[in-house]
Amino acid sequence: MEPNIASIPIDAYHRKPSYDDILCELLEPTLENIPEVSQTITQKPKPKRGSGEASERKEKKKQLSKVSMDGQQRGHWKLEENKRYHWFLEIHSSHFINKHMRRMDKIFKTMERFVGTREAEQCRSHHQKMEKKYGSFVNILKELRRQIYGSGDVDCILSDMKSAGLEVS
């Protein structure tokens, strides 16, 4: 009895085997003998959660260094940087009384040199964030004293500044 020709797919009946088909037939028995390869053949990899362009960009961003090309820090401010920011506010408090004084004296350029690891734009942005969070310059100083030193004791702040090598009067 002859097979029903209508039941055989035309592509499978007329198609010549490709190079890949022949290679797969030849290598299939040998690949199954290798445990690492046989596991990868039988198990499909699970897609990563949140896979896509957005997650790839996040991964690349995480891999980037926290220091930019010119040696400036990025990301969250460290305790030492916050201390130096606080000391700068204590020393130059007269410049922060009104916004006009800040613009005229280019105070954030001075702060950049004082902090040492942040650019002027980062210092300005940090200060604006603090103003928004605490409302006024006086409240910023009070909160920084409380966070860094646990109290508003000026002697503790002055001794810390002296130990860092700053000349304090």
Which properties best describe this structure?
10 helices, 169 residues, mainly alpha, elongated, single chain
Low-confidence stretches: none
Helix content: 55-70%
Total helical segments: 10
Largest sheet: none
- Order of helix and strand elements from N to C terminus: HHHHHHHHHH
Indicate the radius of gyration in whole angstroms: 33 Å
Mean pLDDT across all amino acids: 74
Span between N and C termini?
111 Å
Strand content: under 5%
**Number of DSSP E strands:** 0
Q: Describe it for me?
A:
- The chain has 169 residues and is mainly alpha-helical.
- It folds into 2 domains: 9-42, no CATH class; 79-163, no CATH class.
- Helix content is 62%, strand content 0%.
- Helix 5 crosses helix 9 (137-149), helix 7 (107-115) crosses helix 8 (120-134) and helix 8 packs across helix 9.
- It is elongated, with a radius of gyration of 33 Å.
- The model has no long low-confidence stretch (mean pLDDT 74).
Secondary structure elements and pairings:
Blueprint: H1 10-14, H2 19-32, H3 35-42, H4 53-63, H5 79-91, H6 99-105, H7 107-115, H8 120-134, H9 137-149, H10 154-163
Helix pairs in contact: 5-9, 7-8, 8-9
In summary, what is this structure?
This protein has 169 residues and is mostly helical. It is built from 10 helices and no strands.
